[in-house]
Structure formats: structure tokens, C-alpha cells
Structure prediction request, 764 residues.
Amino acid sequence: MLANQIGYYSLLLGLLSSFLLCIVSAKDFNSSNNKINQNILSLSFLQLMLVVVSFLSLIISFVNSDFSNETVFNNSHTTKPLFYKISGTWGNHEGSLLLWLMVLTLFIFLFLIKSREQPKKYRILTLLFQQIIIIGFFLFVLMTSNPFNYLFPVPNEGLGLNPILQDPALAIHPPILYLGYVGTSVIFSSALAAVVLNYISKDWGQHIKKWVLVSWIFLTVGIMLGSIWAYYELGWGGFWFWDPVENISLMPWLSLTALLHCITVLEKRNMFTSWVVILSISTFTLSMCGTFLVRSGILNSIHTFANDPARGVFILIFLFVLISLSLIIFFIFQKKNYKDLQLFWLSRETSVLINNWFMMYFLSVVLIGTVYPIFLDVISSEKISVGPPFYQKLITPFLIVFLLLMSFVPRLKWIKSKIDNKNSLIIIFIISVMLSLLIIKNLKVDLLFNTILVSAAFFLFFTTLKELFDKKLNIAQTLSHFGFSLLVLSILFNSILSSETITNIKIGERYNYSNGEIFLKRIEKKKESNFESIIAYFEIKDRNSKTIELKPEIRIYNQPKTITSEADIKTSILNDKFLVMSHVKGNEYFNIRYQVKPFMIWIWTSVLLISFGGLMSLFKKKNEK
Amino acid sequence: MYGKKVKLRFIFLTLVLISLILTVFLVLQSLKENVVYFQSPSEIKSLIELDKKRIRIGGMVKERSVFINSDEINFIITDFKNEINVSYSGVVPNLFAEGKGVVAEGFLKDKNYFSATKILAKHDENYMPPEVKEALGDK
Prediction:
């Protein structure tokens, strides 16, 4: 009860502090003092603390199962383990928005601390733009999704958290992803501030690159966590489904990746200034659109929470205001760079430009595939969905060219360059083609297409591997590129070599599939605090009569009454063995799907490598200074 | 007439334009091929020509219509006006049950028989896919 009130009032005070901050910093903007007013920093810290207090009190309400709070009532239950009571705080619409808000205030505070060497006006203006976003979110939370609504009479028991969200990966996935999303807001605000002050320059590039890197790392890891969760929890046996919600997290990532490359050019050569600003704006807009589409219930997906049109309208208006504001600022203040900077075909600058074109292409494909169904539904009320073949068909051919370019273009030097070591490149290329031919020949797949694709990936793999040993180039960058080649290779072999057996089986029955035998030994029933589970004991013998035991589970949760399938996965370096079962009530058959998925662990490892490259780059920056 | 720079810029712009048009064309083409339409059993009954494309069908699983043998699951999807037989082999989502909403993706064999390749997962007992709701006329 008390926590509820504290939470609500500290939110209100937080909003008030936003207005105060705006006034104080507007006053300070034109003052002659070269240093930023100390009050601004304290106020920003106060604001952060107020939101933290609010967030903590929501957590306390969740831990105490205080059902007088509507959010807790809707999303918690007394029998839920403590860990999921806490993670349930951000497993719902209201709580997750509060988390957004908390990260927003945290980042602007960190920005103020970390930007002491930057011009005062630029810092204040960034703060002001950020406060506009923050005020928007405060209003959104308070008006449409207040996490502290009272319920009277107080119910005895809550409705419970959707069991598929009761999972460790999903407990950390939203916070990490949000750190990435919200990080882009700082880039957005500071890009706008820099445009107004005509401060888009090498210095700015160097300073904002840290924020780009941090957001990019969190976004990458956040997307990966979501993907891992979908892999083992949803039981579809894949890691990427081109589901609208997945696409929506991929779009800001693509835009941010383009920005990450582009900003190096700004930092070193003071070029592409407008493009950097456009990318900064679009990255944040895409992050916001993501939140909008997911929260508004327009997308029919696993993330859809209760639909409330008011929320959708609010975010839509907010989004509209932000986009128009940024466009107006961009067109009024952006100074054309008439300095005649020469751009040669073979140079680092062009290579970054090419990277950006590819990113933009991938981005448009994903955008069209995601938005087109919504668009069609609105204008013709025809219901459609866009399947994975759409993306595969449009992305794969371009991926080949992308991989080939990525293999040697990053070696180019600034301004004007030529390709060194042509011989070693050709040798590596021939080796890659031979190797791919050798592998693909033995598999029953389309020879030409797959060979080209795998060769391109191997080419990148070997060139980056060689560079890692040569240590001539930027190691962080090479590591990320190496990780990317590993990712593409793992995904390719995963999709080529995966095998799947589907059958219905009774207890005690044996089923012979093409590669061995599946035996359902017995089932066992167990009772846990908030669910009952049926555990099935399977023995799977493969051709080499190696036997493995897999124990998939069906869980029947009490609150809300939901059934989930827990897949059992045996992971090894070479492949994952994945077994999931389902059961139709009152039937003696269990439906099972047994999959052998090669290189699953390498997919996750390579994504970690990619983000580790980013981390190295971040720390290298600090050491240089 | 024009300087070398202008010429180069012109060629460059034409190239960008051509690639842009090509891309748009490519995207639209594959969109056409890979779009999956949603239909209700009644809509299928009123079809004049059978489409060989992949479609989605949504409605309710008819009571006492689920029948499972060792390689297939057979059931009937109904929108309370018309119904269609569905056969499927694979793992059904957890909330698949008689008298509940369902969306199946696959191919039509004829107007009464649908071969599903995917039964879509629904994660909430009270949740009804908007398409199904519409197909059932908000029942």
C-alpha cells in the first residue's frame, strides 16, 4: 500500500523535476559562465533517483504480492518463485515502460557526467532534447499506463505472469534490449543539439562514438538473448522466425550498425555529416516505432499485451512530434558542407558508404516485410502475413556481395588507396571455393547457389582470421567481422544440415526414423509450487547406436491456467539435439518433434564475438585518451 | 560541354536510380510470391477456383473432431457456418484443444480438405487471434 503511493508520487515529482530542469538549463544556456550550472547536475541526479525509487517501490509491491496494485494483480501470483516475482516487474506493459523511463534518466545523467570536456551549450541543448523525450514518457506512463493504479476491494490472489515469460533469459532480455534502445535516444538528442550549434565535427564524432558503441553492444546482446529464449522456450526449434517483433528489434540494429561505421568517417575525415545526423534520427525513430508497434497491439505476436487504443494513439502522436521536430531542426540548421572533399573509389570512405548502402537495403527489406501487412490490413482489411522466404530471397543474394566486399574492403586506407596483397587474397579465395565445393558436393542441396554462398562466407572467415594473426588492422573491428563470418557460416550450415523427425507416439512405443530409433520409456508426473509437470523419458538411438536420453516436459501452470512445453536440448560443440512434445487432452498419443540442429552454439558464440569486438573498441578508445 | 565532374555525378545518379528501381521491383515481386493470405472456412467454400498457394485458415476446432493416429492429427476447423477437414503432422501448440480458436497454415487439397504444415502457437487461453475473431463474426 505504502510502496504504491511512494512510487506514484515520486513519478509525479520526477515529472516536476523535468520541468525544473528545462527552466534551469534554459536560464543557464545564455549565461556567460563557461561551466555548466551545478544545479543542473544535481537536478538530473534527483530525477534519476525519483524514478529509481518509483521503480523500486513497484518491485517491492511485486515481491510482497500487493494485489491492491492493479499491475501486480494482473501479472503476479503468490505461488510464483521470488525470482519471477521480481522479473515480472518488467514483464508487463506498465513496468517495462517504467524501466524505459529509468534508463532514459540514467543515460542523460551519465551523459552529463561523461561529457565534461564538451562545449557547455551543446551539453545543455542535449539535455533539453532528452528532457522532451523524458517528459513524453512521463506523461505516457502517468496518463495511459500508470503502474500504480489502485484496486478496491483488494483481491486475494493475482492473475499470474504468463508462464512463457517465467524464464531466466527473458528476465534479463528486456533490460538489456532497453539499454540498447534507450542509448539511441542520447545519440538522437545530441545529434540534434550538435546540428543546432553546428557542432557536427571530428570532436563530436569521437565523443558520440562511445554512445553508439554502448547502445550497439547492448542491442546486439539483447536481440541475441531474445533469440535464445525463442529457441528453447517456444519450441519451434529455430532461432529466427522473421516474426514482426524480431524484425522490429533488427531494424534499429541495422540502422545503428550503419551509423557505427559512418561515425568513423566523421571522426577521421569530417565527412558525411548530414548522413550521420539522418542515421541518428532514424535509429531512434525506429526504436520508438518498435516500442509503439509492440505496445499498441497492432502486431499480432507473442509480445502483444492487453490492447489499449489510447496508448497507441499517444505513442503515435508523440512519435509524430519527435519526428517533425527533428526534421524541422535538421532542415533549418543543417549547414551544407561545401568544402570540396575528394572521394576516391578505392578508399575507406567509399567502403563505409558501400556498407551503409547495404545496411539501408537490408533495412528496407525488413521494414517492408514488417509494415506491408499492417498497411494492407488498414487499406483493404485483407489479412496477410509475409513468410520467411520473402526475406531469404531478398537478402541472400545481396549477402553474397556484401560478404565478398567485407573481406577486402576494410583494408583500404583513408583518402586514396589500392588493394595490397592481391596474391594472398586470390589464394584465400581459391581455397574458400575449393573447401565449399568439397563440403557442398557431399550434401543433397543445390550445388551452385550454396557453393557461392558458402565460399563467400569462408572467404571472409579466412581473410579476417589471417588479419587477426597479422594484427595490422584494428583488432576490434576485425574480431567483429570475423564473428560475423562465423555467424553466417553457422547459420548456413545450420539450415543446410538440420534434420527433423515428427511423429505421434504412445508410452512404451518405439518409432524408427531415417536415422535411428525413438523410444518413449515412461512418463512421470510432478508437482511444483505453481505448476504440475508431465516429464517424458525418451531414449534416442542414432545410427551408430549411441543412445541419448531426453526429458521434455509439459507444464500445466495454475495461474493463469496455461500449458507450456519445455523442450529438452542436449548441446554439444557440433550440434544440438532438440526434443519437444505436446499432448492433446484425452488422447493417448504424444506429438513429438525431434531435431538435430548443427552449430547452434556457434551462432550464439559468434554473436558474442561480434559484440565483444564492440567492447574492445570501446575500451581501446578510453586507453588512447 | 559539361565538366568531367558533372558527367561523373550524372552517371552515378543514373546508376543509383536504376538500382533503386530494380530493388523496388524485386521487393514487390517477392512480396507477391511470398505473401500468405488468411481465409475462413466460409470464404473457402465460396471460392470459384482453388488456389495452389499457401494460405492460412482460422476458426474453432470443432468439438469431438480431433482424431490422432501414429502419423497424423486430423481435426475440423469451423466458423459455425462452414467447416473444413484439416490434416497435420507435427507438434501442436499447447493451447490446441477442441472448442478453442486455431490458425492453420498450409495448402488446400480441395474445398473440404486442407493439409496443414504449421499450426500457429497461441499463448494465452483467453487470447483470440484477431483474424479468427473476425472470421467468427465476433462470437
Observations:
- Residues 13 and 110 of chain B are 51 Å apart (CA to CA).
- The first strand of chain B starts at residue 35 and ends at 39.
- Chain B has two domains: 1-35, 37-135.
- The mean pLDDT of chain B is 79.
